[in-house]
Design a protein that fits this description.
- The protein is α+β, with helices and mostly antiparallel strands and 472 residues long.
- Helix 2 runs antiparallel to helix 5, helix 7 runs antiparallel to helix 8 and helix 9 runs antiparallel to helix 10.
- The N terminus is likely disordered.
- This is Carbohydrate-binding module family 19 domain-containing protein.
Length: 472
Amino acid sequence: MVHFSSTILLAAAAASVHGLPLTKRIAQTISASTAKWEQACIAAGGAQQCNPVSVTAFSTLLAAAGPCEQQNSADAMVDLAKSLGNDAEMIRLAQIFAQQPRNTPTSLSVQYCQQAPKNAELNGLFQCQFAGANPTTFVGGVAVGQQGTIPLGLSAPLSPAGSCPANPNGPVPDGQQLADIVQSPGNVGSGNAGNNGANGGNGNASGNNGNGNNGANTGNGNDNGNNAAATSSAPPAATPTAAASTGGDFKLKNGQDAQAQNAQFAGLTANSPCQEGEQACIDGGFAQCVGGRFVIATCSAPTKCFSLPLVNKAGTSLACTTESDAAARISASGATGGVTGNGAADNNNSGNNNSGNNANSSSAGNNAATSTPAPSNGSGTASGDFKAQNGRDAQALNAQFASLTPSSSCQDGAQACVNGAFAQCVGGKFVLSPCAATLTCAALPLVNKPGTSITCTTQADADARIATALGA
């Protein structure tokens, strides 16, 4: 709703008399733009993860936001939907949000993002304009046809001006929410859904380079550290060196990389700056950056989140385990100095963020003793005998996990691997956090005491750890 004081109205009238362009502030109730998505997120089991993403997203509709911030938030909304079993309603509403008009204080059209989205579900989508916005001039006084005034992938201005795939017949009435007036996000992934005639088919050029490799995780998982360099809070990258790719030299390097990550993350807090999708261990819990802030999933007592070395290839992974188990795994790599490389305690953090490792996107599992279903401890308490039992327990857990689905019954707090993703029971329903590409969630045997842990790692690494425990 637009409000004018008498002074503003008189000024506008004077401007009209002198032939100057008439401008007004076009705004909206921004929180309404993500309200339906947040409700769908809560219904899907997102719990406390939903609101931070929602708030960050609707804030991007303010005039001060950059041209790609709205799309970035839509990507975060889709990311969370995918972690919750690819919830279709959340994805649909995220697609519509990506096309919601933005505020314009000068009644000029708002420039379009010129970067590809992370998720393919957003390919070819761009925001509508409000009906009161000037269709020929964009924010900054940029004339239509210049850079930023044509959606990415198109070659000519939109026709009709101000339209978008979800509302192809024209702009949106001032102040209204697209989610209230449309049900379909439009012809997703095909340019501008028929707008602009011959230009519509070009829209998909917008997205193919960005899909799946934007955020902090590119799916490289456990064998490179490209992503960590992109964020100020990242630890030293655990990129395998040339020597690490030959023989067994990578094992020591993996241990040292895990120590470096654990030391770096000891200084992080929930308020540390982060980039979307970035991961870390904070206050002993697994943390993922959602909407520009870390969301922390606590490990089950008495475990904490640690970065651990892989055993069969270059890289590291995250897991919730005991400090003594983390120290033993790092020591087995040949690295000395405890979990942080200086003999210090873990300081509750440790972590991954990625450093290329892996444990990405999900991960960090938790102690399998609290997951669903739990294995039998068997005879694992006698001196050394527990190692083989841990291996058998991990095998039993993995076999049982294979039969679980997102709709399997569970008790709150229970943890498991479901469809290759780390799963936690929230409100009687599993909430899934996918592992990065090439990785899968698996139960692994502890190495210095009875029990198991869950983490995202490669299948080969999981097999190698279990085989070592079994003495195979």
